[in-house]
Write a structure and sequence with these properties.
alpha+beta; SOUL_heme-bd; 245 residues; HEBP2 protein; heme binding; Reg_factor_effector_dom_sf; 11 strands; 31% helix
Length: 245
């Protein structure tokens, strides 16, 4: 019987390793999709099968070292008995990819908006490249003037990484708009957990009580800054009040 040459044995072994890696990759992709689909059902959001690749790619490229934080200048930190009450920050003029969604529930809107932005970030853009994650992903919410009720329409926005600010890749999804936001001063307070209409209205009320002059800020427009994806249970969030121009 002819012996297998070392070279052919190497190639046979190499191809089996590649097949095993592909199988493992597919299994991981299925696991992540299944997880997102189960979370989506809880928010009455359908996560389609074509989200498997963007979810996997985003997860694979989403280590803390690879996430780019949106740059800002810290103006003031307000503390009480060692606890941070809020920060006053200045964010510079910058371009954002934005999508406005209007579903019955806030959770549905942010999940759907985030999924569309994920596709844009994960190669569904004119550059054909993975754009990279920046944090936080922000959601603009609106209330009535008395801050007693939240409007259903929200805007989910992704800050374009620094190298793409001058020439942002064009989104294939016509619902995604590239906007340039002016330089803005925000008052930011951190909170954890899920974000829904109740928790957001509660956080708006808490920050309004803490600020010395809340009337200097917009009274019907606020930002929820999310540092963890909407599928996470114990999310790290911030509520931002926007100082009037």
């Amino acid at each position: 019987m002819a012996e297998e040459s070392p070279d052919s044995a190497y190639h046979s072994h190499g191809s089996s390793l590649e097949e095993e890696a592909e199988r493992t990759e597919e299994e991981e992709q299925e696991r992540l999709l299944s997880y997102w689909q189960s979370v989506g059902r809880g928010h009455q959001v359908d996560v389609p099968r074509d989200m498997a690749e963007p979810i996997h790619q985003l997860t694979r490229n989403n280590s803390p070292q690879e996430r780019q934080s949106i740059p800002f200048t810290l103006i003031q930190r307000k503390e009480k008995l060692g606890d941070l009450l809020y920060e006053k920050r200045q964010y510079g003029k910058a371009k954002w990819a934005c999508i406005t969604i209007k579903e019955k529930q806030y959770e549905q809107s942010i999940c759907l908006g985030f999924m569309k932005l994920m596709r844009y970030i994960c190669e569904q853009n004119s550059s054909g490249l993975y754009l990279g994650i920046t944090i936080p992903i922000v959601t603009i919410v609106h209330t009535n003037e008395s801050q007693s009720e939240m409007m259903q329409s929200v805007t989910v926005a992704y800050y374009l990484p620094e190298p793409l600010q001058d020439e942002p890749p064009h989104p294939f999804d016509s619902d995604i708009i590239i906007e340039e936001w002016p330089s803005t001063i925000v008052y930011s307070r951190s909170f954890r957990g899920i974000t829904n209409e109740d928790s957001i209205m509660r956080e708006i009320g808490l920050l309004a009580e803490i600020l010395e002059s809340p009337e200097l800020c917009l009274q019907d427009t606020f930002i929820i800054a999310g540092y963890t994806n909407p599928a996470a249970a114990n999310r790290h969030n911030e509520i931002w009040f926007l100082q009037r121009p």
